[in-house]
């Protein structure tokens, strides 16, 4: 019964989008890490500034990757604005969720981080699909 429910709601296109979303996300995360690490380690850039450089680089990879490959949209300012709103919202939500988990349940940090990295990408995908890269945004 559960399998039939999944088959009914998971089209091939949705599965493709989820897989591509994951690949773009991994590429963006790796970009963030290595840009920040390189700027800090080799460029002697302050760690916090290096992190911002990495984050901005990751946002660019995510925007173009999700726009072109995940959701196959023609990119424009409306989509970019929506993407930035969701990206910053996801960053804020991840911090709030982490804080709530730590203050409410006080689990080990690795548990809280695991919950955050498993939850926020799902929410980001849903917001991206339903709002950021929706057909209405590409007009």
Form type: globular
| Poorly predicted segments | none
What would the average pLDDT be, to the nearest integer? Answer: 91
Proportion of residues in β-strands: under 5%
Q: Main beta sheet, described?
A: none
Derived structural class: mainly alpha
**What is the total domain count?**
2
Number of strands: 0
Compressed to H and E, one letter per element, the order equals HHHHH
The rounded Rg comes to 17 Å
Q: How helical, in percent, are the residues?
A: over 70%
Structure annotation, total helices:
5
Distance between the termini: 39 Å
Protein architecture, described:
With 139 residues, the protein is mainly alpha-helical. The chain is 82% helix and 0% strand. The mean pLDDT is 91.
Quickly list its features:
139 residues
Give the gist of this structure.
By secondary structure, this protein is an all-alpha fold. It is built from 5 helices and no strands.
SSE blueprint and pairings:
Layout lengths: L1 H8 L2 H30 L5 H24 L6 H28 L4 H24 L7
Helix pairs in contact: 2-3, 4-5
